[in-house]
Amino acid sequence: MKSFTKHLSHYLTLFGILLAGFAGLILFSYDRNFQVAVAFALSLSYVAWGVSHHYLHKDLHIETFFEYLAVAVLGFIVIFSLIIRT
């Protein structure tokens, strides 16, 4: 719990990024192309947050970068497939 409160500002930033991304997906539900752009921006923001978070704590490794990239790509694929399906 101590670690969570120590990094609370980082996690609130991540929550804000995700909340803004999902709000963009909902608010622009009438424009599929813009939704894809929002999903792509959300994925890039997630990777940027992860890299900066680990860089600030001096535990950034190439494996960590690829892990965040893989999760972002998978998330983008899921969101993209849901956008295209509807």
Automatic annotation (TrEMBL):
Keywords from the UniProt entry: Membrane, Transmembrane, Transmembrane helix
Transmembrane segments: 12-30, 36-56, 65-84
Keyword hit for Transmembrane helix: yes
Name under which the protein is recorded: Uncharacterized protein
